Amino acid sequence: MIGELKREQPIFTTRAHVFQIDPNTKKNWVPASKQAVTVSYFYDVTRNSYRIISVDGAKVIINSTITPNMTFTKTSQKFGQWADSRANTVFGLGFSSEQQLTKFAEKFLEVKEAARLARDKSQEKIETSSNHSQASSINGTDDEKASHAGPADTHLKSENDKLKIALTQSAANVKKWEVELQTLRESNARLTAALQESAASAEQWKRQFSVCRDENDRLRHKIDELEEQCSEINREKEKNTQLKRRIEELESELREKETELKDLRKQSEIIPQLMSECEYVSEKLEAAERDNQNLEDKVRSLKTDIEESKYRQRHLKVELKNFLEVLDGKIDDLHDFRRGLSKLGTDN
């Protein structure tokens, strides 16, 4: 197998999960690989043939020669299959994406067409070679008949014996081919039945896929509900965080109020002393008010005396003014008298 791969060239490679149809039930798929493995198209330059080969470790799980009669069928978005009459089985490939499945199917059609062209060219070569050998044999016999009419009978007999042997071998080959054709027909019938069963299995897979999809939708809906519940829980956590901060603020305010209350209690302890002092001050205030009243009475009396004194002063001023006026008149008279005396003294 390794030597064959050395003379073959990989023309396309991908990765997929490999399955084979159950040979007993012809319905269920049996995994040929535990995980995705490499699946490659190989071209054999010597034989001018194409094969699909996949190896899992040291085990060959796919060795399928592609013929023009093969068909690759997509049974789902990520699964495809084909029947191999020579291996008497049906291979299935599960891909991770629809794009990989599409590329593999397109390559299968391309390789299938290349295999058909190679077969047609091979048949044309065989037919051309057979016709050429028959024409050469007939021409050679005619020439021998023309040149050796009598002595050539022995040669003709030998040639006829050779032709008889060739016809016998050809008949045997025809029987052999008929047997192989019958075997291929039976194998094709088995593969057709297996393909039909595979199609039924594909329908079962589709139903299971639909159930899984519904379950997936239900789980997604459940996940959405859980996410919504998580969102509500997060909102509640935020509210709890805000409430904790508010409680801490209220506790801080409460501590401040307690401190103020302690201060007030300390102040309340000196209230009796303050009240006694207040009573003492009140008594002093009342005494001061009484003294103030007495002083006001004295002020009013003094104001009365002052008014009377001012009145007497004004009266005295008037009398003094009158006296001064009289005095001025007397002084003027005295001056006049003195001038008269002076004048009398001068005259004497």
Automatic annotation (TrEMBL):
Keywords associated with the record: Coiled coil, Cytoplasm, Synapse
Record InterPro entries: Homer, Homer_EVH1, PH-like_dom_sf, WH1/EVH1_dom
Listed CDD domains: EVH1_Homer_Vesl (cd01206)
PROSITE patterns: WH1
Coiled coil: 174-312
The UniProt record lists the keyword Cytoplasm: yes
Main localization category: cytoplasm
Name under which the protein is recorded: Homer protein homolog 2 isoform X4
Species for this entry: Equus przewalskii (Przewalski's horse)
Name of the coding gene: HOMER2
